[in-house]
């Protein structure tokens, strides 16, 4: 399971890096063409928008997996250990419900915008909403896996480890 997780993480980082490089080259190249040659690539701005949306949503999945999103832990760190564990489960439940609602919203948007194409690229507008759906689905899977690992005792959240270290130091 751990090797699959590492493979998915590496693949996601490669995809994000590739998108970022292509996005930079596309926008920079178009800017050079506009200012030096008074012409540009018509579809570059629209494609850059698509790539940026995918970059943000895939980055959100990667950040969630690595627990790099901002967490306000002032309450969690000031309650007893059993309450901390309950709050962790509760926060995972809130994230899971939120992502399921977000996924449902993306499905509604996909249905609403089916058949609409981007004016410059001809790509379906739904590619933007599919990125959100992929993000929501992946985060729900991550929440479930991390919760199961937490119950088995094979995963401890970073903030919970930090409080264990503080208690050991005292």
Sum up the structure in keywords:
5 helices; 170 residues
Can you describe this structure?
The protein is mostly helical and 170 residues long. The chain has helices at residues 2-37, 44-65, 81-112, 126-152, 158-169. Helix 1 (2-37) runs antiparallel to helix 2 (44-65) and helix 2 packs parallel to helix 4 (126-152). The protein is elongated, with a radius of gyration of 21 Å.
Gyration radius (Cα, Å) is: 21 Å
Low-confidence stretches: none
By DSSP (H or I, 4+ residues per run), the number of helices equals: 5
Number of strands: 0
What characteristic shape results from the CA principal axes? elongated
User: What oligomeric state do the depicted chains represent?
Assistant: single chain
Mean pLDDT: 85
Order of helices and strands: HHHHH
Largest sheet: none
Task: Write the SSE topology.
Layout: H1 2-37, H2 44-65, H3 81-112, H4 126-152, H5 158-169
Helix pairs in contact: 1-2, 2-4, 3-4
Quick summary of this structure?
This protein is mainly alpha-helical and 170 residues long. It has helices at 2-37, 44-65, 81-112, 126-152, 158-169. It contains 5 helices and no strands.
């Amino acid at each position: 399971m751990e090797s699959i997780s590492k493979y998915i993480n590496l693949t996601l980082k490669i995809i994000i890096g590739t998108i970022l490089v292509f996005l930079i080259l596309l926008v920079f190249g178009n800017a050079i063409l506009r200012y030096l040659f008074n012409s540009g690539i018509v579809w570059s701005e629209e494609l850059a928008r698509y790539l940026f949306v995918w970059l943000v949503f895939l980055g959100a999945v990667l950040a969630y997996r690595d627990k790099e999103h901002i967490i306000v832990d002032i309450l969690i760190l000031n309650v007893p250990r059993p309450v901390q564990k309950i709050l962790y489960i509760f926060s995972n439940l809130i994230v899971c419900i939120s992502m399921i609602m977000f996924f449902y919203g993306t499905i509604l948007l996909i249905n609403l915008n089916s058949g609409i194409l981007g004016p410059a690229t001809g790509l379906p507008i739904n590619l933007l909403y599919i990125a959100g759906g992929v993000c929501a689905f992946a985060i729900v899977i991550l929440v479930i896996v991390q919760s199961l690992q937490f119950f088995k005792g094979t995963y401890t959240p970073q903030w919970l480890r930090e409080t264990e270290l503080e208690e050991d130091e005292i």
